[in-house]
Amino acid sequence: MKRILILTVALVSGGLLFSCFNTIQMANLQQLPTNYARSQAFDEKPVWRTAVLPPMESLGYSLSQTAGLYDYAGMALLRTGRFTVVDRSIVDQLLDEQEFSYSGVVDQATAVQLGGLLGAEAVMTINVTRISHDNFWDDEPAQRDAVLHVKLISVETSEILYTSVGQGTDFDGAEGALRMALEVALIGLTQ
């Protein structure tokens, strides 16, 4: 009888603990960052043909740190169901033909011009503003924090359709932190 009582108390406690965990988890989801803005013009079109431009490296980050972000951004857009994406090799070819370096697409007018040449309706720019190591994690040398800014720009009107800032942290290096920052920055497109 004592075992049944202990088992019952354990099951009830476990159920309450699970319920509390789910409540905390849902509260955390509701507190997701809202550091984005989306134009009404974005919602007027169900699907946007989009060219993702290589991440801007205005602060001197190496191409190896940001290269994976380029493809990951296209995949993240495709997952939303709101975008088709111009193939990266076509974007790279046009950048080479137009003699732009990976760090050369730095303004909105140039991005819009490239989007037009690619037959895109919108272009996505990614500006990596910070990759750093938090000294609190000295015992984790691969830990990195990343911050980036994303803009989705209409090729036809040059209007900013979506803009956001994302932050991410990873303990395996810059690539993971950048991916997390991108996921955070795209929250406004996936909701």
Question: How would you describe this structure to a colleague?
Answer:
This protein is of the alpha/beta class and 191 residues long. It has two domains: 1-31; 36-190, ABC-type transport auxiliary lipoprotein component (Rossmann fold). The protein contains seven helices and six strands; from the N terminus they run αβαβαβααβββαα. The chain has helices at residues 2-30, 40-43, 63-80, 88-97, 108-117, 174-185, 187-190; strands at 36-38, 48-52, 83-85, 122-132, 144-154, 160-170. Strands 1-6-5-4-2-3 form a six-stranded mixed sheet, sandwiched between helices. β5 (144-154) and β6 (160-170) form a beta hairpin. The chain is globular and about 50 Å long. Residues 5-31 have low confidence and may be disordered.
Give a short summary of the structure:
The protein has helices at residues 2-30, 40-43, 63-80, 88-97, 108-117, 174-185, 187-190, and strands spanning 36-38, 48-52, 83-85, 122-132, 144-154, 160-170.
Assembly state of the chains shown = single chain
| CATH topology term of the largest domain | Rossmann fold
CATH class placement of the largest domain: Alpha Beta
Number of domains: 2
Major sheet description: 6 strands, mixed
What average pLDDT do the residues reach? 78
C-alpha-based Rg, rounded: 21 Å
Binned strand content: 15-25%
Cα separation of the termini: 51 Å
Order of helices and strands: HEHEHEHHEEEHH
Instruction: Name the CATH superfamily assignment of the largest domain.
Output: ABC-type transport auxiliary lipoprotein component
Return residue spans where pLDDT drops below 50 for at least 5 consecutive residues. 5-31
CATH architecture of the largest domain: 3-Layer(aba) Sandwich
Fraction of residues in helices?
40-55%
How would you write the strand order of the largest sheet? 1-6-5-4-2-3
Based on secondary structure, the structural category is alpha/beta
Number of helical stretches of at least 4 residues:
7
